[in-house]
Amino acid sequence: MLNDIVADGLTRIRNASMRKLETTQLLHSKLMESIIDIFQKKGYIESYNVVEEPGNKKYINVVLKYENNQPVITEIKRISKPGRRIYRGKEEIKRFKNGYGTIVVSTSKGVLPNDVAYKEGVGGEVICSIW
Question: Given this model, what pLDDT does residue 97 score?
Answer without folding.
Answer: 80
